[in-house]
Amino acid sequence: MKQERAVTVLEVGGAIVDRETVYRQPVHIVLEGPSIVRLGEGAYAAQPGEVVVRRWRKLDRIAIPGLVNVHGHAAMTLLRGAGDDLPLMVWLQERIFPMEARLTRECVYWGTQLACWEMLLSGTTAYADMYMMMDAAAEAVAESGMRALLSIGLAGTDPAVQAEKLRESRAFVQAWHGALDGRIQVALGPHAPYTCPEPFLTQIADLAAELGVGIQIHLSETRGEVDQFLAQEGLTPIGLAERAGLFRVPTLAAHCVHATQNDIEILRAHDVRVAHNPQSNLKLGSGIMPLGQMLSRGVTVGLGTDGAASNNNLDMFEELRLAATLHKGVNEDATAVDAATAFALATEWGARALFMPEGFGTLRPGAPCDIVLLDAHSPHFAPSHDLLSDVVYAAGADDVRDVIVAGEWVMQNREPTALDTERIRYEARRLKDVLTGHTSSSNVES
Ligand SMILES: N[C@@H](CCSC[C@H]1O[C@@H](n2cnc3c(=O)[nH]cnc32)[C@H](O)[C@@H]1O)C(=O)O
Ligand SMILES: [Zn+2]
Hints:
Elements: E1 5-16, E2 22-23, E3 27-32, E4 35-41, E5 50-65, E6 67-69, H1 88-100, H2 105-121, E7 124-131, H3 134-144, E8 147-154, H4 159-176, E9 184-186, E10 189-190, H5 198-211, E11 215-219, H6 223-233, H7 237-243, E12 251-255, H8 261-269, E13 273-276, H9 278-283, H10 291-296, E14 301-303, H11 316-331, H12 339-346, H13 348-353, E15 371-375, H14 387-394, E16 400-405, E17 408-412, E18 415-416, H15 421-436
Parallel strand pairs: 1-5, 6-7, 7-8, 8-9, 8-10, 11-12, 12-13, 13-14
Antiparallel strand pairs: 1-2, 1-3, 3-4, 5-15, 15-16, 16-17, 17-18
Helix pairs in contact: 2-3, 2-15, 4-5, 11-12, 11-14, 12-14
This protein binds ligand SIB and zinc ion (ZN).
Zinc ion is lined by residues 71, 73, 218, 254, 306-307.
């Protein structure tokens, strides 16, 4: 007897498959296990050998691929608003690091769950995270149902500290890399060249090569950082990372705001992926990354929010729209970063930046079933001349209704299915006192 294949059918009122393929009329998406096997116009018609075991009829929804946030520090949600209106180095050294010194495992767990809740509400299905006590972060994201690329942030000048961090990173890779059917990936996370001396960077690259994992790092975020390395080493931070051998392994470099022409060539030659974080770069006064030059030279770029303490939210719709408009303004060119490019940055190219296989970040056959459903009855889609334009230039997180990851509903009607949101809110308020070092009897919150 011929083997029958159990499939799930999702019918929606419209869909954006990728930056080139858009349906403004009802489509059916056929899922088998965690993946999309087929997508087509109109209602589903039975195929030989297929047995429909579940049918989700959602004609009041528009399907888009889940958004991919390629750079951040999830648990920094607990530090949101704790140090605004300061440049990067003052912000980090005088405000953030002292509070992070009081961080506990509990802070990372609940801060990460808070981040997951916020990211689901704004249609994100996968994100990158570099932080501390990452086993707690991994447990938190595992429960949420989302995908993540996780790294222990590595910094330090003392060789004993460095050795301990490498040992921890090795154990973290062994425990979590590829866990939960690949939902959790691990990379090594040297924080930046200004916190990791060059020999440490080389050791990190050696370990990543040995373990077969990638690297994420902050590079050339501010002009001051670049000037410091040029003065001390005669090289830019990107040039130094290359000399340290970092780019022998797949690398995701955050910011690259002050990348030179030669730096862009280095990034391209080693297929270094770049995380563009326009809102964080604006808020910290770091500058504006040369996105047009990166893309025209063929560098893979994705979009990120960075941590909630320098953004101050994790809304990828804001980042998407900012990427689409900012570069038009600074270049006085309305054709810069068109809607399709911005959409790819937030989806397909972001997935590539996170080292995911081809097809991730789209709704094409073979892609994982990571789908965000938007409210088709939102004013942003009435009328609709161009659905891709509506999503990039008009829609927002408020239009997000449901989120599916690997074929599982992780948010339904704006309620995460696996997160206890009331508890998250309670713990976040409680843990603020741990981080600030105060006990706040007078802190009235409701
Ligand atoms: N500081 C840690 C390791 C780094 S975890 C990642 C770090 O990146 C910090 N961070 C957040 N946003 C940025 C940014 O925009 N640039 C540089 N560092 C950042 C964040 O506060 C956190 O300390 C240690 O002592 O081992
Ligand atoms: Zn960062």
